[in-house]
Amino acid sequence: MNTDLKTTILKYDRAVPRYTSYPTAPHFKEGFSRETYVGWLEALPAQTALSLYIHIPFCDVICWYCGCHTKATKRYEPVNDYVDMLIREIDMMAAHIPNHCIVKHLHFGGGSPTILQPAEFKRVMDALYRHFTFADDAERAIEGDPRGMEDDKLKAYADTGINRVSLGVQDFDPKVMETINRVQPYEVVFDCVERIRKHGIDKLNMDFIYGLPFQTLDTTVKTMHQALTMTPDRLALFGYAHVPWMKKHMRLIKNETLPDKSLRYDLFNKAAEILRGAGYETIGIDHFAKSDDPMAIQTRDGNLRRNFQGYTTDAANALVGFGVSSISELPQGYVQNQPHNILYRELIGNDRIPVYRGIEKSAEDKLRKDVIDSLMCRFTVDVGAVCVAHGFAASALDDCFDELQEFERDGLARVEGRVVTIHPDALQIVRIIASAFDGYFKTGIARHSKAV
């Protein structure tokens, strides 16, 4: 990309939602009714495709860049106790989910789900298999810390049907990794990948972060080439969000060690250039996949989707979350579990579904969500056609177009009638352009991360 276009893009960089949901999580309401949630679950139609998410909120140590809902523990007893509560929640929830629903996708996130010992992992999987019917081709994925994936755990994953592992790598440069409290040499990751495949799990994702302390173009080039030696099916390049006012451990990362926004921009684009040069296709704003990967195929077909795990091939009609802070997405709206471990345990112990907050999607919310999702996944949207498809007048969102004029003037977007198309070199600010259609968002809310 030319320097002038880079300057123009950086001019617009500001904090906006990630749009893994709409309405976004800050607008969920506390005190949401458990009865409403149960009613939504029980109303799922026959043959509904289900996605299940399991949250494990523990790590051996906290990485200082981490924005996840997790805590460090040196003892395994709290993890074991949590599994007891998690299984009780699965038992309770399953009683309200029609048994004719079919699970198409299962995802273990965290935290570090790989902190679970094989016995506890199998207990959770047994509970899921006891209550739910899985499609033969269901994806069963787990996020993993390469430093803690011993062979007995990998065997447990393979034995219970896990068929995709997503490794949190972040970077390979020793200075970068030491500064973020995640000592994880390349050799450790390479060995982990070999053992994953040895156990028959052949779908591999790798996550990287740009914008970390002491990253340079040289370290990024080396890291990307090292990643390519392991030929992952998918790679993600996430921008580091430095929010020390929200995550106190981020205060241990000094501001002066962080790349400025100009370098962050270059880090992402250099990494993307290397991946595309190696044959990976661009997926959305921050993913890359081999051309024969289902995510690349769905992108070409216009069927890519986005949920709380980011870009996904998951086509399920409903996502049900289990565990502390997990979020469910049902046709009617969103529900989040209690985020505090003690209160979560207390609610489960009293046989109460641990609802913390939620929101029912209005007809307008559903309309705006489809517009935003189309921009995030396909970089183009016929706003008028989407309005009509939702039963609104084609002009229903015309007032949003005022905010697009500056992007069009600067060549970052094209507006033809009510069709909006993002410039192919401006994908890093798609979230900013999409925010024009967000009925809740107000510019300058610091709780969100910047786009670039």
Describe this structure in words.
With 452 residues, the chain is an alpha/beta fold. The chain folds into 2 domains: 24-322, TIM Barrel (Alpha-Beta Barrel), CATH 3.20.20.70; 363-452, Orthogonal Bundle (Arc Repressor Mutant, subunit A), CATH 1.10.10. The chain contains 15 helices and 22 strands. It has helices at residues 3-11, 34-42, 77-94, 118-131, 151-159, 174-179, 186-198, 217-228, 261-277, 294-301, 341-349, 363-378, 383-389, 405-409, 430-434; strands at residues 15-16, 29-30, 49-56, 58-59, 71-72, 102-110, 133-144, 164-170, 203-210, 234-239, 281-283, 287-289, 305-307, 310-312, 318-322, 327-330, 333-337, 355-360, 380-382, 413-416, 419-422, 449-450. The chain has a 9-stranded mixed sheet, with helices on both faces. Strands 2-18-17-16 form a 4-stranded antiparallel sheet, with helices on one face. α3 crosses α11, α4 (118-131) runs parallel beside α5 and α8 runs parallel beside α9 (261-277). The longest helix has 18 residues, at 77-94. It starts with a helix and ends with a strand.
Task: Describe the secondary-structure layout.
Blueprint: H1 3-11, E1 15-16, E2 29-30, H2 34-42, E3 49-56, E4 58-59, E5 71-72, H3 77-94, E6 102-110, H4 118-131, E7 133-144, H5 151-159, E8 164-170, H6 174-179, H7 186-198, E9 203-210, H8 217-228, E10 234-239, H9 261-277, E11 281-283, E12 287-289, H10 294-301, E13 305-307, E14 310-312, E15 318-322, E16 327-330, E17 333-337, H11 341-349, E18 355-360, H12 363-378, E19 380-382, H13 383-389, H14 405-409, E20 413-416, E21 419-422, H15 430-434, E22 449-450
Parallel strand pairs: 3-6, 3-15, 4-5, 6-7, 7-8, 8-9, 9-10
Antiparallel strand pairs: 1-22, 2-18, 10-12, 11-12, 13-14, 16-17, 17-18, 19-21, 20-21
